């Protein structure tokens, strides 16, 4: 059964958020990077513009930029309501408000959409999904995985986590995963 557009919940983070989440310094940004589950994040677009070397993989890349843009339009208001309703549990301090966070997310996703068609042609956005990434033995310096592993600990079982982390280690010399908390803000049971 294939990945359906309705399963995609586009909520992409900015380049600056990726640098903060993964403690990426200047030297890291010069490495060859595999971004796993990057979805509509702006990291690939901005890093490429800066001369970086990155490939992002996500099952959502099977869809066109038009389909992803349409899905963003469908769910964006609802996501903002969910953020506002959960504001006390989320760290909104650096954004100020749910609306401000929404603006950052929308800017990041717009940046992604502007880059997606070109990036897909260049092989920078590839439709692969954990736990198996079907590249030919390509080796990266660094693999990053944001807001998939550990976060969805209820939906993705221990076996999926172990296979996925081993797969990331197969492709990259170093792997960084964020967060290590689940959706209830507790340390993942799979950690
Ligand atoms: C919450 S989003 C995070 C997007 C991005 N990493 C960020 O932090 O802004 C989760 C992403 O995981 C992707 N995803 C879902 N299942 C996946 C799998 N088995 N392997 C890789 N990516 C997956 C989704 O398509 C979605 O883009």
Give the tags.
binds S-adenosylmethionine, 191 residues, Rossmann fold, alpha/beta, globular
Written description of the protein model:
With 191 residues, this protein is of the alpha/beta class. The protein has a single domain, classed as Rossmann fold (3-Layer(aba) Sandwich), CATH 3.40.50. It is 40% helix and 14% strand. The protein is built from six helices and five strands. The protein has helices spanning 15-21, 26-29, 43-49, 65-85, 98-121, 158-171; strands at residues 32-36, 53-57, 125-126, 140-146, 172-178. It has a five-stranded parallel sheet. Helix 3 (43-49) links the parallel strand 1 (32-36) and strand 2 (53-57). The model has no long low-confidence stretch (mean pLDDT 92).
Order of helices and strands: HHEHEHHEEHE
Mean pLDDT over the residues? 92
Number of strands: 5
**Structural domain count:** 1
Associated small molecules = S-adenosylmethionine
Count of separate DSSP helical elements: 6
Highest CATH level, the class? Alpha Beta
Low-confidence stretches: none
Instruction: Kindly provide the radius of gyration, computed on alpha-carbon positions and rounded to a whole number of angstroms.
Output: 16 Å
CATH topology: Rossmann fold
**Assigned CATH architecture:** 3-Layer(aba) Sandwich
Structural classification: alpha/beta
Strand order, sheet with most strands: 3-2-1-4-5
Strand content: 5-15%
How many angstroms does the end-to-end distance come to?
A: 29 Å
Q: Please bin the fraction of helical residues.
A: 40-55%
Morphology call: globular
Give a short account of the largest sheet: 5 strands, parallel
């Amino acid at each position: 059964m294939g990945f359906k557009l309705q399963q995609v919940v586009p909520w992409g983070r900015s380049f600056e958020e990726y640098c903060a989440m993964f403690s990426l310094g200047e030297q890291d940004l010069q490495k060859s990077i595999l971004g796993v589950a990057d979805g509509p994040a702006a990291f690939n677009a901005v890093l490429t513009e800066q001369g970086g070397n990155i490939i992002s993989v996500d099952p959502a890349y099977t869809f066109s930029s038009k389909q992803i843009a349409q899905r963003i339009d469908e769910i964006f208001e609802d996501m903002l309501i969910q953020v506002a309703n959960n504001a006390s549990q989320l760290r909104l301090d650096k954004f100020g408000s749910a609306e401000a966070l929404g603006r950052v997310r929308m800017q990041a996703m717009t940046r992604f959409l502007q880059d997606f068609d070109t990036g897909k042609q260049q092989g920078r956005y590839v439709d692969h999904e954990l736990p198996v990434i079907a590249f030919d033995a390509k080796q990266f310096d660094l693999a990053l995985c944001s807001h998939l592993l550990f976060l969805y600990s209820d939906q993705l079982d221990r076996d999926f986590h172990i296979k996925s982390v081993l797969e990331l280690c197969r492709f990259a010399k170093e792997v960084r995963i964020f967060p290590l908390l689940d959706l209830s803000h507790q340390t993942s049971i799979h950690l």
